[in-house]
From TrEMBL:
Transmembrane segments: none annotated. Belongs to the glycosyltransferase 2 family. It comes from the Bacteria. The keyword Signal does not apply. The lineage of its organism: Bacteria, Bacillati, Bacillota, Bacilli, Lactobacillales. Residues 7-165 form the Glycosyltransferase 2-like domain. This is Glycosyltransferase 2-like domain-containing protein. InterPro entries: Glyco_trans_2-like, Glycosyltransf_2, Nucleotide-diphossugar_trans. Keywords: Glycosyltransferase, Transferase. The keyword Glycosyltransferase applies. One of its GO terms (molecular function) is glycosyltransferase activity.
Length: 274
């Protein structure tokens, strides 16, 4: 099996289900080309079941699995920032510990970087599913070209976080991940774009993303409303959008957060997906 100089970066915390983590790892090991490093940040103490699974892959992967253990839960932004700094490769592929990669994901993205040295970040479309990948809920299509991505970023997140492969050097140059509850990735992308770095989304569906009612629940209520408004203000201040863009997306954010969960799910599927 061919190995490529790519680090797969993941962060796991105690609420992750061990079976989801296992599916993510197996999809990584099923890649048509293998990353020469998987870096896993343990964001605070985990469950015994998760530690057992991690030990299984530590034994199986030997030197290809790098583990960083944080004494306390730091949150996704901080955990990923630490992970980025410690990845041994300049190309880093992000992955969530409950999603599943298509078998050719890493190969396609790596080859795209080889063809275009100007790119700093590459993402893709996703298929959203619940329980099993056969139970498809929706498909999320993203803007493809650098200019389309820049325009899209003024109002919405232009990349699916679990699909991106980016250059470590570029991410660190704009300040790395910073804590911004629920919007750590979006905040990083707008800083990359504003600094002039180029991005691209591939038309292929390279990741199966786990969604369903759990996600729709997390995207609503006052606990998501207020941090979301603060985050959108920060993104507006450091991004590419106008004040009108900020007002319009904030209004939509308020409406979505106050919707009943069932209605919110329908809105995501019909209005924000294709």
């Amino acid at each position: 099996m061919q190995t490529i100089p790519v680090s797969v970066l993941m962060s796991v915390y105690k609420k992750e289900k061990p079976e989801y983590f296992t599916q993510t790892m197996e999809s990584t090991l099923a890649q048509s080309v293998q990353p020469d490093e998987i870096l896993l940040v343990e964001d605070g103490p985990l469950t015994d079941e998760l530690y057992e699974q991690i030990q299984h892959y530590r034994d199986r992967l030997a030197g290809r699995l790098t583990i960083i253990s944080l004494e306390k839960n730091q949150g996704l932004g901080t955990a990923l920032a630490i992970g980025v700094k410690n990845c041994r490769n300049d190309l880093i592929a992000r992955m969530d510990t409950d999603d599943i990669m298509a078998n050719t994901r890493l190969e396609i993205q790596y080859n795209t970087f080889l063809k275009n040295s100007e790119l700093a970040i590459i993402g893709s479309n996703i298929i959203e599913f619940e329980d099993t990948i056969e139970n498809e809920l929706a498909r999320k299509n993203m803007p493809l070209t650098n200019e389309e991505i820049r325009q899209f970023s003024k109002k919405r997140n232009p990349f699916n976080h679990m699909t991106v492969m980016y250059k470590k050097e570029a991410v660190i140059a704009v300040g790395n991940y910073l804590p911004l509850q629920g919007f750590e990735d979006y905040y990083l992308w707008v800083r990359l774009l504003k600094a002039g770095y180029e991005g691209q989304n591939l038309p292929e569906f390279l990741v199966y993303a786990r969604t369903g009612n759990d996600m729709y629940n997390r995207r609503g209520g006052l606990k998501y409303l207020m941090p979301g408004l603060k985050a959108r203000k920060r993104i507006y201040q450091e991004g590419l959008g106008s004040f009108t863009d900020f007002v319009s997306v904030s209004a939509i954010h308020i409406v979505i957060c106050l919707m009943p969960t069932q209605l919110r799910g329908k809105f995501y599927k019909r209005m924000l997906r294709k």
